[in-house]
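Quick illustration for those who missed Monday's session on complexes.
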Amino acid sequence: MNRLKDKVAIITGGSSGIGLAAANKFIAEGASVISADIAAPENKNIDFVKTDVTNPQSLQDMVNTVVDQYGKIDILVANAGVAEKKSAVADLDLDNWNKVIAIDLTGVVLTNKYVVSQMVKQKSGSVINMSSILGVVGGVKSQAYSAAKAGVANYTRSQAITYAAQGIRFNSVAPGYVNTPLLKTLPQKVRASMIEKMPIGRLAEPEEIANVIAFVASDEASFVTGALINADGGYTAQ
Ligand SMILES: NC(=O)c1ccc[n+]([C@@H]2O[C@H](COP(=O)([O-])OP(=O)(O)OC[C@H]3O[C@@H](n4cnc5c(N)ncnc54)[C@H](O)[C@@H]3O)[C@@H](O)[C@H]2O)c1
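Prediction with nicotinamide-adenine-dinucleotide bound:
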């Protein structure tokens, strides 16, 4: 299929796991893909602009580079993220909290800020922000990660209704547990409990999440937004 023909897509964290699977899928669907990541992808068909999503200057430079080279940005997948050090809040490691919030929540918002400024000029764009099942239901001994991911989901609803009339769509995706390098950073006991929680009896594969992201990014899904515009001109956030 060619659902993303001639689209220019930035994927933060596009060099590994779900972001890499999305990059490969987007290319297969006809898009040009830029991985904005601290690490380079192995696939040389994916363009790479070294970017740290916690650093505003790095993000602004990345957007400038992409616009200079491609002339536009059609799609942003704000996907870069890290796992947390799990603990009950009484044992909270504040440095770890600050790091996870900086990358998983503030990093998404900052990436949106610089990319959406360009999309406003174009009067079009599709933004997909990465949430998680832990942002929907919470998890034992999760603190920064579940807070960040819930924050991403609700922040995204607010942007959807803010930008709907300007032709920019915002959605977030909230995968269950996915077989990526991020999970390998967690203790084996935690990984085993994740598989037990998956109704399908296994971890999801990154390609399965990438298929959803590609659909939501495409014009086929142009009706999908975090906001429902009501007939009376008001709106309902979804
Ligand atoms: N794996 C899962 O089970 C799962 C489930 C739900 C949501 N998610 C979310 O999906 C996203 C991708 O996770 P993954 O499992 O593919 O992980 P991953 O570790 O395979 O990939 C994460 C990528 O983000 C990059 N990254 C980290 N910090 C960065 C920074 N400061 N600036 C730019 N890039 C940075 C890494 O270099 C890496 O390439 C994350 O937001 C994660 O929270 C993962």
